[in-house]
Amino acid sequence: MTRFRILLAGALLVFAARPAAADITGFLGANTTPANRLVKGASIGFSVLIVGFEFEYSDTSEDAGARAPGLKTGMANVLLQPPVPIFGVQPYFTTGGGVYQESLGTAENTDVGLNVGGGLKISLAGPLRLRVDYRAFTLRGGAQYSPAHRIYAGLNLAL
Fold first, then answer.
1. pLDDT one-digit tens code per residue, 123-135
2. In 81-127, where do the E strands start and end?
3. What is the tally of structural domains in the chain?
């Protein structure tokens, strides 16, 4: 019983050592599938130790001339990242799923999708960071292009 109490006390100290952290990101970038188009969006997330959760929305503009559909995504993601930046850089890996809406002209498709990716949160000044991210989206249910690839940079504010 004493051993159990010591282990429990140690676990509480480890988990209590760093409170949950939250952040918000606004971003601009490019959806590169099938042609480069502007993507803009935002995310909000929180993390405890190395595991984080994030909710994001993005909107890619349509390019009718290149037959490249507009793409809106709403995703819930899990992030794995070190609890603190290493030399001012915090790398992360993310995966998740949600809904998407693809449109080109009058054609429109809404279904579910998955995403996987990663990136870096780079310390700038105080709570302000530069976030650079890559994602690959697997779009279900008859999407015109799957996987869709997105790269972005944005300002991230640690709350």
1. 999 999 999 999 9
2. 89-104, 107-125
3. 1
What's the CA gap between 135 and 115, in Å, rounded?
Answer: 6
Q: What token pair was written down for 149?
A: 């690839």
Q: Tell me the mean pLDDT in the region 23-34.
A: 97
Given a cut of 60, whether residue 23 has pLDDT beyond it is yes
Task: Name, in order, each residue with C-beta under 8 angstroms of 118's C-beta and a sequence gap of 6 or more.
Answer: 91, 92, 93, 94, 133, 134
CA pair distance 77, 96, nearest whole angstrom: 4
Enumerate the β-bridge partners of residue 27.
41, 154
The whole domain housing 24 covers: 20-158
Mean pLDDT over each residue of the chain, to the nearest integer: 92
Residue 14 resides in a domain: no
Peptide bond preceding 69 in cis form (omega within 30 of 0) = no
For 106, phi then psi, to 5°, come to -95, -10
Average pLDDT value for residue range 13-41: 86
